[in-house]
Amino acid sequence: xxxxxxxxxxxxxxxxxxxxxxxxxxxxxxxxxxxxxxxxxxxxxxxxxxxxxxxxxxxxxxxxxxxxxxxxxxxxxxxxxxxxxxxxxxxxxxxxxxxxxxxxxxxxxxxxxxxxxxxxxxxxxxxxxxxxxxxxxxxxxxxxxxxxxxxxxxxxxxxxxxxxxxxxxxxxxxxxxxxxxxxxxxxxxxxxxxxxxxxxxxxxxxxxxxxxxxxxxxxxxxxxxx
Length: 226
Known about the structure:
Distance between the termini: 31 Å
Low-confidence stretches: none
Radius of gyration: 22 Å
Order of helices and strands: EHHEEEHEHEEHEEEHE
CATH superfamily of the largest domain: SPOUT methyltransferase, trefoil knot domain
Structural class: alpha/beta
Oligomer: single chain
Mean pLDDT: 91
Strand content: 15-25%
Strand order of the largest sheet: 2-1-6-5-7
């Protein structure tokens, strides 16, 4: 799967994309990641991408023109280099639909995602005419959409075939079947802290796979619906 991220702070993604399974998936061509500096599509000597809002008010607003140009150029490039036309353009904004695992699974069916990172007080409303969907990662305030983009990239990318070393790991994860994943334990069997012993549940040491499976299923928690 291909991810294109439009941002005014491209360096924020350097470490994120250069570590762990994200990096491995890129090396193995399971996923490809492209981070674009929005200023590349800005005009003028100073490559301005933000302006004061009409009607007054605090803060600055990202201008529509550079973002629209970026979307069009990136989409054209994707269509020239890929046979599929399954592209989704997403604006990351507090006004969007809240992101969850079901959304991630739906987005994973596309071949390319273009993620637009908002900043400052937001983006020119007219950008909405050029995007397919608006997404928020939660009811709280961030400085910009970069963190949200990372959340979506990792959540969706890991659903790509070949991303996980053991594909069966995806089946028992949290939020699958509306359940939180069961508790996990590892060595030592007895954890001693401040003269107290914290033990691993006996059933996990029994070697009885059916009992272990039943215990794990029993200890998964149902996700509370809003």
